[in-house]
TrEMBL record:
The keyword Lipid biosynthesis does not apply. This is 3-hydroxybutyrate oligomer hydrolase family protein. The keyword Protein biosynthesis does not apply. The lineage of its organism: Bacteria, Pseudomonadati, Pseudomonadota, Gammaproteobacteria, Lysobacterales. Residues 1-22 form the signal peptide. Pfam families: 3HBOH. One of its GO terms (molecular function) is hydrolase activity. InterPro entries: AB_hydrolase_fold (IPR029058), OHBut_olig_hydro_put (IPR016582). SUPFAM superfamilies: alpha/beta-Hydrolases. Keywords: Hydrolase, Signal.
Amino acid sequence: MNAFLKRLIPWLVPALAGCAGAAVEPAMPSLDFVPGEVRVTEHRGADDLLSAGLGLAGLAGAPVPFADPAHPTADELRRRAIQSSWKGIADLGPLGGYGQVYGGVPAVPGREYQAFAWIAGAHQPHRVLLQAPDGFDRARRCLVVTASSGSRGIYGAIALAGAWGLPRGCAVAYTDKGAGSGFFDYADDSGVALDGRRARRGEAPLEFTPPPLPPDAGIAVKHMHSGDDPEADWGRHVLQAARFGLAMLDRAYPDQAPFTPQNTRIIATGLSNGGGAVLQAAGLDEEGLLDGVVALEPNVQLAGQGRQLYDYVTEAAIWLPCALSAERFDAVPFARAPTATHWPQRCASLHARGLLAGSTPRAQAEEAYARLRAAGWSDAAMQVAATSTAFDLWRAVAAGYASAYLRRGTRDMPCGFRYAATGQDGRPALADAAVRAAWWSDSAGIPPGNGVGLYGGTGAGADPTLAGELCLRALWEGSDADARALHAGIDATAARLPRADLPLWVVHGADDGLLPTAFTSEPYIAWLRAAGRRPLYWKVPHAQHFDAFLPLPGFGERHLPLLPYGYAALDRLWDHLYCDAPWPAAVAAPEGRPRGAHALTRAALGLP
């Protein structure tokens, strides 16, 4: 049923209620993509859906302890996974305004339905989850579908989709989009079961089960080693999660069943990689499942337009350390951090290889800066990118994504990279049982971090990481079989055009230094408009990519959070879908201002 007919379904609730009731519709097809169990859990009282009973203060506090660190319970793992997902996405600092100026963390009792779902032809599953609140609004049947940001686990979008949807009575369906933190450790041949606890191969269905290898094969990570190039299927993961959500709504509220795309509004939203996933879903939604899409700072890639993620990430890994050593960046947060002391050495290394002509460190830094400016990097993006450079994020992303695009395993990652547990001296070692048990709840899904290191890909000399970074760059610039395979993997991730009448809103920070707007949202919006679509676009001044970085020194004073603008766009979409508010032809970007040394105020956001 197309979107026009979908809107003609007769609503049975008076217009005064502002929303629609359920019409009688045929049931959804059977869930043939969920061959195993669906785990159902109750979350009430001292536990809930949105914060696992922690509330805002608990989410912002120290990591929730495990009674037995080596053997945490499923409830403990879930609680800490929710906490770490919140802390990884939202600014919960005392000056950030969350819960006072925007957003909130009310207690939302309800049930969770969780399973492993399979895309046709995939080697590994993706995890899907429906949160069904007890206060589900039966008069305004709403399902929010979302995908985790970055490579995070199943709760990786809870601060966006859950925080907006659950308090207003929507159910929320999540997917980890074929990534997640269900790391497999060959040392004890264990992975992560459906309840988050560790299990050995063959003991239970696992989030990720790679081919057998000897115990010294290290750590396997689903995003990088599944053999599926999961980014190419992000949109399918989202649409499958929506179908799972509808089927679980039938179970959660049988007196209201069936739940179908014709009688239930489905709103897709996501952030970063999750934003790219919902835009992919919009282009694949031939059945008209989705009623509207709000994408925040999306990692969206186009065929032949904009710049591909792998292109500018490998460029940043090589050139930003040198460029950021220029005097113009002396006052930029993290540009002079202890981890940045070796950046001038990068200039010398590039000069020694004939890649920079300047004869002095100052001239070399300015030359690297000019190169990046010519490639489309803005000053604002480079300034904020100092943080990602200081955290060695570019190399981590490039190595991991290269492996995913090439469909490699743990022992044949490109350029000699590999993942292994990290010992106290920083060298590969056997994982401690407590560290291993916490991976699922604590990890962001892409090493290094949480006791898993990125090793290999290094050379001799004072700048050891350059060799691996140049090797990764050669996969982009080369023409051999590996380079062609990498480009084929990237090409498969390109977004397609959404249907012409789909309400779609992209919200992106003007200062994003990880996914610069010039490489992502702006080409995507221009492409849509050239094709006759009418997307809305907010390029938010002073906002950057990581709200969670705003409590860091120098960040909150300079930058605004992006989440409140995402919530505002979702509010406008709600008014359009449920209250007949007209969908605007265009929107002006809010004129917010940094909070400086003071606490964030509503006025600083510049929202109406």
